[in-house]
Design a protein that fits this description.
Elements: H1 2-10, H2 14-25, H3 32-48, H4 52-65, H5 70-82, H6 86-111, H7 123-146, H8 155-163, H9 169-175, H10 183-188, H11 196-205, H12 212-221, H13 227-244, H14 248-259, H15 265-277, H16 292-305, H17 310-322, H18 326-339, H19 346-359, H20 363-376, H21 383-397, H22 402-415, H23 421-434, H24 439-456, H25 460-472, H26 476-489, H27 493-518, H28 522-532
Helix pairs in contact: 1-2, 2-3, 3-4, 4-5, 5-6, 5-7, 6-7, 6-27, 7-27, 11-12, 12-13, 13-14, 14-15, 15-16, 17-18, 18-19, 19-20, 19-21, 21-22, 22-23, 23-24, 24-25, 25-26, 26-27, 27-28
TPR repeats: 36-69
Keywords: Membrane, Mitochondrion, Mitochondrion outer membrane, Receptor, Repeat, TPR repeat, Transmembrane, Transmembrane helix
Family: Belongs to the Tom70 family.
Length: 538
């Protein structure tokens, strides 16, 4: 009967195959493994017919009969993800990941190859974990937003975003690198009567961000507005809403810019870049595999329209590094440095040499990268350049470079003394450098974080770091409470998503860790913790 069912399955006659498999069950009542295998085949047949609920039922019965039925757990997890039942999908994946980590260690014992591969489980499982966590992040983020204060644009987030662009029209006007239509009125102090796009430009120049979107919307909805002002208002509104909400309106504004005959190639290039970036926010730890083609197309259009656009190469390289292909990121940066004007290339050059300093083990290459950064330092045009140099020094030199990376963070703080983010990052990096499982140091780090909050006020990144440290010390409940506080204090939807995703990922790995310890695999649990929980920023 089972053989007949298999033949029908191969012929894609799935309904008939199911009937044969069910008939075969009568001959296997005493053998649970055989019954489980038949139920797996029944589930697979339902899955082929896209009857996902019935497939899940059959897989569930099979798992009940056969403990640790990993092949079926994988299939059920995948279907539960497709059905939007993300927590159940993660429950299955805990068993799968634990099994694959154990299996890998058996191979290590046989081959004699030392070391713990990142994640410790198969690429297919890793991608499934990403997809499930993405889905659950979307659901949980919407829950947070439903009870969250309005996501207005925090000044520090707006200005950090604008600093990261050198070719973009909005950033260049904000930095004073290009003239604006309201410069004369601002110089004369005659700006009170400005309306629509002109009022939005005034607020951008004066660094008053709360009403920019409202002023742009007034211009766009004004039937008497000029087409040029409407175009500029759309680009500015799209940029501002991208920073903290990334709504469908954001996408619509940028698409209309790309379609406008009035838009310059430079503006269209910047719009396509931001359309690509909507899939690749660098703070977000996950990215859907089905968006890669769209991202590539938008980047290509941006480059075709303006090959000297420095922002393409900088943000494109960030994406490549984020996808764990830093050598390709270096190639893109090198191309950008060659094509773009020197005055727009400082961040690219900084990122290029900090990557060289970070990813190579060759002393000569590291030394050369360090010397190039020291020569470039006097040209650094933002706090982020000093931050990149400081992070690279930390990664490359450890305690030996402590004074130098502290100096770089101090310079970043001096560039933006009103922004506490660089102060908190300096503390966080120092804590990770000093972290060697020494609870005294961790206690000291927690005390420093508490002192920072008392002095500077509540800060979402500080609470995120406290959460990580508490979890690493085994205080999962206190750690998760701190992560919740971090989410509560976050002011942009991008950061809310990043914090929610990081929390969900930590919870998953805590469960895997716990299971490994239950099975007496303490060393594996510790190695997994080092790889998955000790990451400075989400």
């Amino acid at each position: 009967m089972k053989g007949a069912g298999n033949d029908l399955f191969k012929q894609e006659r799935y309904t008939e195959a199911i009937a044969k498999y069910k008939a075969a069950q009568a001959y296997s009542v005493e053998n649970k493994d055989d019954l489980a295998a038949l139920l797996h085949n029944i589930g697979l047949s339902h899955e082929k017919m896209n009857d996902l609920e019935e497939a899940v039922k059959a897989y569930s019965e099979a798992i009940t009969l056969k403990d640790k039925y990993i092949k079926v757990l994988k299939r059920r997890s995948n279907l539960l993800c497709k059905l939007g039942r993300y927590q159940e999908a993660l429950d299955d994946l805990v068993d799968v990941v634990v099994d694959e980590i154990k299996d890998q260690q058996k191979k290590v014992a046989v081959t004699g190859v030392n070391g713990f591969m990142p994640g410790g489980f198969q690429m297919e499982t890793s991608q499934r974990l990403v997809d499930i966590l993405l889905g659950q992040t979307e659901v949980e983020t919407q829950k947070v937003l439903a009870n969250h204060a309005s996501c207005s644009p925090p000044v520090t987030i707006v200005e950090a975003f604008l600093r990261m662009f050198n070719g973009d029209q909005v950033s260049r006007i904000w930095k004073g690198l290009e003239p604006s239509a309201v410069d004369e009125q601002i110089a004369q102090g005659k700006t009170d009567d400005l309306k629509g796009y002109m009022a939005a430009l005034r607020d951008l120049k004066l660094k008053k961000y709360d009403a920019i979107v409202k002023h742009c919307t007034e211009e766009i909805e004004n039937p008497d507005a000029s087409e040029e002002n409407v175009l500029n208002a759309r680009f500015l509104r799209g940029t501002m809403t991208f920073i903290w909400t990334l709504s469908s309106q954001t996408v619509e504004d940028f698409i209309k810019v790309t379609e406008s005959p009035l838009a310059s190639n430079k503006m269209k290039s910047s719009a396509y870049l931001k359309l690509a970036m909507r899939h690749t926010n660098t703070r977000h730890p996950f990215s859907k595999s089905d968006t890669i083609q769209t991202i590539s197309e938008d980047y290509s259009k941006a480059e075709e329209l303006w090959v000297e656009n420095p922002d393409i190469y900088y943000h494109g390289s960030l994406l490549l590094v984020d996808r764990a292909v830093p050598l390709q990121g270096l190639d893109m940066l090198e191309m950008g440095i060659r094509f773009c004007a020197p005055e727009t290339s400082i961040m690219m050059k900084t990122f290029f040499w900090t990557l060289q300093l970070t990813i190579t083990n060759e002393d000569s290459v590291r030394n050369n990268a360090y010397l190039e950064l020291k020569k470039l330092e006097h040209e650094f045009d933002s706090a982020e350049c000093h931050e990149m140099f400081g992070q690279a020094l930390m990664a490359a030199g450890g305690d030996e470079r402590q004074a130098e990376y502290n100096e770089q963070f101090d310079k970043a703080i001096a560039c933006n003394p009103q922004d506490p983010v660089f102060k908190i990052k300096k503390l966080i990096f120092r804590h990770w450098l000093g972290e060697n499982g020494n609870l005294v140091k961790e206690d000291h780090a927690l005390a420093e974080m508490d002192s920072f909050i008392e002095t500077e006020g509540p800060n979402n990144l500080a609470y995120y770091h406290i959460g990580q440290m508490e979890i690493l010390r085994g205080n999962a409940e206190k750690g998760l409470e701190a992560l919740e506080k971090s989410i509560e204090l976050t002011g942009s939807i991008h950061e809310i998503e990043a914090r929610v995703a990081a929390k969900l990922e930590m919870i998953f790995y805590l469960r895997v860790n716990s299971r490994l310890k239950e099975e007496g695999l303490e060393d594996l649990a510790d190695q997994l913790q080092n790889l998955t929980l000790k990451q400075p920023f989400p």
